[in-house]
Amino acid sequence: MKKYKVVYSDGARKDIVNIIDYIETNFDSPIDAVKIAIKLFHKCESLATFPKGVPICHTDGLAKKYRFAHIKKYTIIYYVDDSCTEVVIQAIINSNRDIESILNDGYVVK
Q1: What's the CA gap between 77 and 103, in Å, rounded?
Q2: What are the pLDDT digits (tens) for 5-58?
Q3: Which residues touch 49 (CB under 8 Å, ≥6 apart)?
Q4: How many of the other CB atoms lie within 10 Å of CB of 53?
Q5: Which ranges constitute the DSSP H helices of 47-106?
Q6: DSSP secondary structure letters along 51-65
Q7: For the domain 5-104, what is the CATH code?
Q8: Please, are residues 39 and 71 in contact by the beta-carbon 8 Å criterion?
């Protein structure tokens, strides 16, 4: 079984930092912030084994075939690059956000 390397875009790294900051600031809970960050990283890293286990979603007009993995109330937006066996984590957002508008506004690579 081929294992992929998980790569985080600059935007995805910023998303994780923003999630941690939000939880720490609004809920005064650094421990919960760290727990969520760990769960997000574990979910992202688990995509290395079965990156195509999540169906392709919302690809109209986009150059990449994005997939959405969910954990808790967050959505991990990623694509699989078979040419270099990488899973590219493009963004990590709150699942309540309008994913369609995020894709259309250029938050992810078109």
Answers
A1: 10
A2: 999 999 999 999 999 999 999 988 889 999 999 999 999 999 999 999 888 886
A3: 1, 3, 4
A4: 10
A5: 99-104
A6: GGGS-B---TT-SS-
A7: 3.30.2310.20
A8: yes
